[in-house]
Each structure stands twice: as C-alpha cells, then as structure tokens.
Amino acid sequence: MPSKPLHLSDKAALPFKTTNKSRRQQLHIKQKQARDALRRAERFSRKKEESKNPRLREERLRNNVPQTLESKRKWDEVEDEPENGGLGIAFNVERLKRRKLAEEQELLDAGSDAVEEDVEGIDGKEQSDHDSMLDEDEDAEDDGELEDDEDLEPPEDPTAGEALPTKSQLRSATARSKPRASSPPARSTTSTNLSLAPAALTAKFPTLFLPPDEQPPTPQILVTTSINSTLHREASILTNLLPNSKYVRRSSHRYGHKFSIREIASFAAKREYTTLVVLEEDMKRPSGLIIVHLPIGPTFHFTITNWYEGKSLPGHGNPTSHIPELILNNFTTPLGLLTAHLFRSMYPSQPEIQGRQVVTLHNQRDFIFLRRHRYVFREKKERERSVVGADGKEMKGAEGIRTGLQELGPRLTLKLRRVDKGIQRASGQEWEWKGKTDRVRTKFQL
C-alpha cells in the first residue's frame, strides 16, 4: 500500500503560542519532521525525473550558482586610463588593457578588409580587360590577321614586375611582416601581472615602477617600533621575514630625544636603506605597520590582525636564512598594483631556490593574507588528484608529481588604510589614497 503524501496542517504551519513549554517543544519537533519529510520527498521525486531526463539535472546545476560577495563585485566604469593614475578608482587594469587591444585589433581588421575589397575590385577590372583582349584576338584570328605563331607571343612589358599584387600575395606578405604572437604561458588566474601599471601611475611613482631593462636595487630594510613599545620579539620576527633587514630599538628614555618617523627616514636614506618599517602596538600586540619607501616616499599605513607566531602553528617548521620566493596574488586595480610593487621592492629579485621557501601575499576583499611556507616535491599517491593548470586541464609533465607545504610563520592579515604623499611630519596631512571613502560594500579597492 503506497504511503500517503505528507502535508503540513494549517495548525502546524501557524505559530503555536502556549504557556506550556513541553507542548511548544513537541509542536516544534513535529513541524521540523514534517518539513524534513517534504524536502526529502521533493528531493527523491526530482532525482527520479532527472534520471529519466539528464538535461533537467544539467539545467538545474547550471542555474544553481550561489551568489557570493566576490561574484557581485562592482567595478567603476572607465573608458580610458585616468590622468591622475586612478588610485581612488576601482577598475581592472588587465581587463581595460585587453579591451583596448581588442578595439585596436578590430580597427586593423577593418582596414585590412577595406584593402582586400580594393584589391578584389582591381583584380576584377584586370580580368575584364583581359577577357576583352581575348575577344579582340579571336576576332582578329577569324579575319585572318594573325598569320604566324610568332605574332601570338606578347611583347615584353618593362612594367610587368610593377603589377599590383593579388590577394594571396597580400596575405602572405602581411603574414611575413606581422608574425602571429605566440600564446602566453599558462599562469594562475589570481597571479598579479606587474607589467600592466597605468602610465600616469608609473610617472607619479618612478622609484616603485622601474623600467623593465633597469635592475632594481638590492633592498635594505630598517625595522623599528613605536615609542615605548614592548614588541621586541615581534620586531625580530619581522627581520627574519624580510631579507636584508635590521632591527634598531627606538629610544624611549624620558630624557632622550623622541625621533619622529621623518627623522628616522632621513637617517635611513643617508645610510642607503630602501625601506623603513615601523611596527605599531596596541595592548602589547601588533596592531599596525607603517612602510615608508625611501628616499622620498610614499608612506603606506596598514592595520594588522590575526598575528600568529610560527611556534603557535600546528606542524610548523623552522625558517632558514635563504632569500624566499615572492608570490603576489589578486592585485588588479591601480592601488593594488602600487601595493604589489611596494612588497616586490622589499624582496630581492633573485631568490635562493635551494631554500625552497616562499612568501605569499594574497589579496581577498581588500584583506592581504601573508603566509610563509616551505615546499617539497614528492610522488603523487593513488588517491590524490592530478595537477591542473589555469585552463582546467591536466598539466603536462606533472602527472606523477605533487607538492607538500609546511608553514613556517608568522601568519598575519594586513589591510591598507592610507597612502600618504612623501614622508610627512604629522601623518595624514596630505594623502594619495584614503580608505572608507566609498560606502559600497561590494566595491573593493585592491
């Protein structure tokens, strides 16, 4: 005997108000059981229909795309690169470059089509003239004017080599003059392309955006803390994270001179330091990071959250003194590229691969997650999946290879709050960019 379909009664669907607590609990359990039974029956009926018609399942999965904050991200509409660099505008630099290249390619294709139409018209005219000449020759042969075979040979034309080329010749010449560019190497969908910075931004910060042919200077970093700080161990951890860095304690004596950041930056620039890092403190925990790009700025202000030392991470490793590799992920806007170039200037361009250490700065919703790992290559196990490239296909040459990671620490999260002009006496007097100027929740600046 088939089971009766379950339906919620009107009384069960309505809120039941009673002073008896046990009755309220029983009613809530019955309502929950009825709703679960309805969902289960609906799920099984849908499964039975999809087994008969697989297209229903494909359509359901295609439409069942969850809405996330990242998918609803809003961009500013920009037709061309802003003249001021676009630090306060959230637009995808790489997408804008691709659109410009596509428009230029369309113009080139339109011009080539016009040339081909002209060539076709000229070829048709030559063909018609040639046909008319053949007709005249046939008439002359009928009249007996052509007596010998020698008369059929056309005279040599001195301008024969200067004839207009045909369509096939034009296409071959175009292919030789403009060879097709090779396909770019497959890269991660989140990796940052540092060569796409706007021209105005490059001109505004020439010390950060160096030309491709110019060798960047070796970074020398001076690390210090705020006045009366107790974060000496955390500052020494930063010197371990940043290569070629030195920690100098800031004076906190009651009769000593309280050096400002501008004075420390001047002191460091004269001694060929390239970056000044100031670790700020709140409740004896790291709360902020001020990074000054020497010798003329700009100054970046970050807040620090979720600071965890390496020893507090489960299964952590011990770092070595090797220069790590640097990975910059998901920096797409002009402000993001400026921030990515700042971090790139703090690490040498030639890492020591034998150390197998990598520092990752991953941007997600304007939060920069900093991690440091040690990697190792090992053989793939049977239950593990193969390595997949950016196109979603299995990567050739890495079928039986997997990568193991061991976190070294520290682990922290950064958020950019302000970018000051140059190096100021009082922070925040003149700024290039300042946070919380846009109240749209789905618009991100990095």
Please supply descriptive tags for the structure shown above:
alpha+beta, single chain, 446 residues, Ribosome production factor 1, eleven-stranded mixed sheet
Overview of this protein structure:
This protein has 446 residues and is α+β, with helices and mostly antiparallel strands. Among the domains are: 10-63; 72-133 and 191-219 and 269-278 and 289-381 and 399-446, no CATH class. It contains nine helices and eleven strands. The chain has helices spanning 10-13, 21-52, 54-63, 93-142, 167-177, 199-204, 232-241, 261-270, 334-345; strands at 221-225, 245-247, 275-282, 285-293, 299-308, 325-329, 357-364, 367-379, 401-407, 411-420, 431-434. Strands 1, 2, 3, 4, 5, 6, 7, 8, 9, 10 and 11 form an eleven-stranded mixed sheet that branches. Mean pLDDT is 80; it is low at 136-167 and 173-187.
